[in-house]
Amino acid sequence: MRETNVDFAVQATDLTKRFGDFLAVDAVSFRVKPGEIFGFLGPNGSGKTTTIRMLCGIVPPSSGSGRVLGWDVAREAERIKSQIGYMSQKFSLYEDLTVWENLDFFASVYGVPNGRKRERIKELVAMADLAGRETEIAANLSGGWKQRMALGCAIVHQPPVLFLDEPTSGVDPVSRRNFWEMIYALAERGVAVFVTTHYMDEAEHCDTVALMHAGKLIACDTPEALKAGSLKGDLLEIDCEPATDAIELLRRHAGVLEAAPYGVLVHVEVDAASLASQLRRALEENGIRVNGVLPVQPSLEDVFVSLIGQQLAQKSISAPPR
């Protein structure tokens, strides 16, 4: 891995991207240190991919600035591209080549010296647990194995910054966990890892999490700090059915700040946890079966739902009357 002398591997300051009248990314600002795993979290269409494409020098920003390893994303894109690893959402390698041939091709593209290439590919095969699969055609690999190979190709030149755009989308839970183990190892070696995802549970793996919604950065902190300080009230977990009817009723109940599905359960943000008995009674009086009501600690999904609710409420308050 190349040494860097910058305090921040990635910096964005009011980074903005417009496509015609559509504001895809709205003045986002953040910084990523070397060795940090930075999670860029949000639903599909929130601006994550556009942001990562600006930082990789693929599309220019409309305004604001971005720097990677100290280089400006608008003026020095080619220098940035040679010093970063980038893994896109979809498997975009050569499916008619073998695992070894793919790694060899990208080693050549990134300028890995011929005398070092074979040794480097062996290192990547070992890291990604691809031993014994070197001669397999990429098209025949499962999603999890393709993912490992794609990561190997992205870091074949040992970049100090790695951009991962929805890297675990469409792979099984075991492959996701194994992939994150590789990410941890890279970060321990000083690689700055910038990863976009819409899986809320994956954000728990990150040192810092930025939450995106509708092109805006609505929060940025450690997972622990976000869970500790973002909700305005207490959180209750309700096991009930039908959950959809329960959510509609709960949102109209006094003292309820937000109610949202959480798997097969319902999470309810309330002024005070003491409302639990009142809410249970209200649900049961309306024909909803309640199996349990418990106070729980918030997850990042709860934080995200709460922050969006707060943002929408603020918009409603500030909107001019019609």
Task: Describe what is shown at a glance.
This protein is α/β, with parallel strands linked by helices and 322 residues long.
Class inferred from helices and paired strands: alpha/beta
Span between N and C termini? 59 Å
- Give the rounded overall mean pLDDT: 92
Radius of gyration: 23 Å
Please give the CATH architecture of the largest domain. Answer: 3-Layer(aba) Sandwich
Q: Please write the string of helix (H) and strand (E) elements.
A: EEEHEEHEHHHEHEEEHEHEEHEH
| Residue fraction in strands | 25-35%
Q: Which ranges are low-confidence, i.e. pLDDT below 50, for 5 or more consecutive residues?
A: none
The helix content is 25-40%
* Counted beta strands: 14
How are the strands of the largest sheet arranged? 6-7-8-3-9-10
Q: How many structural domains in the coordinates?
A: 2
Reading off the top of the CATH hierarchy, the class of the largest domain is best stated as: Alpha Beta
* Oligomer status: single chain
- The CATH topology of the largest domain comes to Rossmann fold
Kindly describe this structure.
The protein has 322 residues and is an alpha/beta fold. The protein has two domains: 10-227, P-loop containing nucleotide triphosphate hydrolases (Rossmann fold), CATH 3.40.50; 232-297, Alpha-Beta Plaits (2-Layer Sandwich). Helix content is 35%, strand content 28%. It has helices at 48-55, 77-83, 99-109, 114-127, 143-154, 173-188, 223-229, 243-251, 276-285, 300-318; strands at residues 10-19, 22-32, 37-41, 63-68, 71-72, 84-87, 161-165, 192-197, 208-213, 216-221, 234-241, 256-262, 265-270, 289-295. The strands form three sheets. The chain has a six-stranded mixed sheet with strand order 6-7-8-3-9-10, sandwiched between helices. Strands 2-1-4-5 form a four-stranded antiparallel sheet, covered by helices on one side. Strands 12-13-11-14 form a four-stranded antiparallel sheet, with helices on both faces. Strand 7 (161-165), helix 6 and strand 8 (192-197) form a beta-alpha-beta unit. Helix 3 crosses helix 4 and helix 3 packs parallel to helix 5. The longest helix has 19 residues, at 300-318. The radius of gyration is 23 Å and the shape is globular.
